[in-house]
Amino acid sequence: MTACRRLEDRVYIVTGAGSGIGAATAARLAEEGAVVAATDIDEDAVAAVAAEIGAGALALGHDVAGRDSWTAVVERVVDDC
Question: Where are the alpha helices (DSSP H) in the chain?
Answer without folding.
Answer: 20-31, 43-53, 67-80
